[in-house]
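Hi all, long-time lurker, first post. I run a small reading group and we've been trying to get comfortable going from sequence to structure in the token notation. Rather than ask abstract questions, I figured I'd post a concrete chain and ask someone more experienced to write out its structure so we can walk through it together at our next meeting. Sequence below, copied exactly:
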Amino acid sequence: MKITEVINFSADTKRRWLYIFGSMLVLFYVFAPASSVLFHSGEDIRYVFGGPDKTCGSDDGFYFMKTLGRPLQAYMDCFSYKHGYTLERMRMIRFFTVGLMGLGMGLLAEILYSMGVAFFTAFFAAGIIFMVPKLYADTVQLGAVSLPYSVLFAILSYSCLARVHLIFANKLQGSVRLWLAFSAMWLFCALLTYPAMAFIFCTLMLMRVLFSKSSDWPLTKIAVNREIKLFVSVCVVYFIWAYLNMRFNAQAPVPSAYRVDHPAINPLEMFERMLGLMNPFDGAWWFLPYMKPPTQGKIVLLTLGIGVILAGFNLWQKHKKNKIAGFSMWQSMFYVVLLYLFSCGFFLIIPVRDSLGSRLLYAAMTANVALIIWALNNLGLLFKTKIQAAASALILGGFFIFQTLQAGSYTMADALSHFYYHNNITSSIMSYLSKNGSVKRLHFVIDRAEYPHSNFFLASGAMSEIYGHDKFKLKWCSLPRGVEGEEKDHQAQMLECVRNTSHDVVAVTYSYTGEPYTQTEGMLVIVPKAVSVRINTWYTQLLT
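-- Answer (accepted) --
Happy to help. Here is the structure in token form:
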């Protein structure tokens, strides 16, 4: 097959829609149990303050996200704020996000097919990428519309760039500048939505190198160089704009961990982070949530080792007397390393390594998963030539099915955990109200590992269930979100806020476990307790 045919993205429309329909069908089936549970989870509880008549600015975090350089995410969160203010409506938000994931998975499968990957192998490989917990855990549980949108925008950008490769390779008629503009626009939209997710664009470049034929390397290299130039150019424009926006147009206080205008450029620090990402026993390789890290790390090392040996032996047999082919092989290896570093780029430059949450690892994890997919695909080389493609598809298909079983179980268990956790807080407030008639202050005692401001959302969710939507008023009296400092050093301001709160408003405060706190009139102390739910299935029992 010629390279001009391999990189042709103007593929059969029926196949593209078949990929999309099949992807949506699978993902809806996998995540339907978790999506159907009526619950709020994490910071999405702030949506209970929302409603169709509420302005975007009244959404907690709206101006914060705009300051961070993610205005599209701010408006996407506002969409959820206006429509997800009840549990039933929040369930529809979750189904919508799963549909977005299915659309992205189908388009990714089409891209892989256009690279020369077999039909079913492309579908399973795309599914494995979308079964990364860093994506589906927050997307399904939080109804985080911005996450799948950012991934979808990056995939659309790569699709437009594939059209540019086609025009150049086949000397077809078409406006190269127009398709480049479309590609840059979609990539910029992905960065404006969630830059950490947008770096999956680098994973797609990595997969092009991994799955390209050695005989097609000259044209592949040209295509990848073109992709690198566009990606770097758009990223430079975005980060300059984000820097200026945060420096001169900040609309909300921002913690040091989120400072785009203070990237980490210490080479030693970046090297240490890179070592952590490359460690198969660490969190960046956590693609099977129920498998213990030591077991998973051993399987990863074994799979990658066998895949590299088989690929190397296959290339040596085909090109052992061809020096040019050998040089191309070393070039492709250099590009694999380079693109892997690009995929990890956002995580390497964030100001603080561990305080920003799991989403920042998504691109790095998809790069790791791409290497695993490549290694699993190479296992087909163990079989006869006529059945190699079928064998690779079966191997990847088996791994994908195993992933979906774990993903469905994991999200369902997590959904039930949040459901019971939320109900425990609601029950505590109802019990206090039944004895005292009213409450003036809700005080949460939490561990230092928890995010303090989440307790305001938890309180709002519980009060919404007790009194109904828009039938209560809460006021956060502890340190404002994004303000640096220790809560224990601001007790005077906190107590003044509590005392000045009107009778129809409930104050919300917090303290860390082991720290003293001042008792006030009408105060309910809540010590949230984590609820662990386990879905007992044969595959989780085997791995624990």
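A couple of things your group might point at:
The two ends are 46 Å apart (CA to CA).
The chain is about 65% helix and 5% strand.
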